[in-house]
Amino acid sequence: MNAVLPGAGSGPSVLSASLKGRCPRCGKGRLFRGYLAVRPSCAACELDFSGFEAGDGPAVFVILIVGAIVAGGALLTEVAFQPPYWVHALLWGPTLVILSLAFLRPLKAAMIVLQYKHRAEEGRRVR
Ligand SMILES: [Zn+2]
Fold it and tell me: In angstroms, what is the span from residue 92 Cα to ligand 1's centroid?
């Protein structure tokens, strides 16, 4: 099994590589070229990143996680303080944007790291 992706069971932890945006195999090379663009390969160990595709997964998790945080926070604020609506808009609008931007990159990295760790790839027909 390890002949396909040597060292897939070792390397940095999923949490560490995801939060730092590092290569899932060596933990040294950067995974991203900009904010969300994935590099073609690792500069340190030359692992090819082109086979990894997170798709819409990170955005779905951001919607679920940040939506729960903001909706829960807005409900608790309303129940506890009954502020005017402009306070909610002022408080939760920027919070929504900031948390979404903060969560998107680590979640995309986590999906790529998990694809590497579990050797996930597109299905192929076996004959
Ligand atoms: Zn690497």
Answer: 38
Neighbours of ion ligand 1 (CB under 5 A): 23, 25-26, 29, 42, 44-45, 47
* Tokens 């604020």 -> residue: 77
Q: Tell if the pTM clears 0.85, that is, is over it.
A: no
Kindly tell me if the per-residue pLDDT of 20 is higher than 50.
yes
At 48 the three-state DSSP class reads strand
Give bridge partners of residue 38 from the DSSP assignment. Answer: 32
d(CA 98, CA 127): 49
H/E element, 112: helix 85-117
Q: Report how far residue 43's alpha carbon sits from residue 28's, in angstroms, rounded to the nearest whole number.
A: 8
| All residues at 6 or more sequence positions from 56 whose CB lies less than 8 Å from its CB, including other chains | none
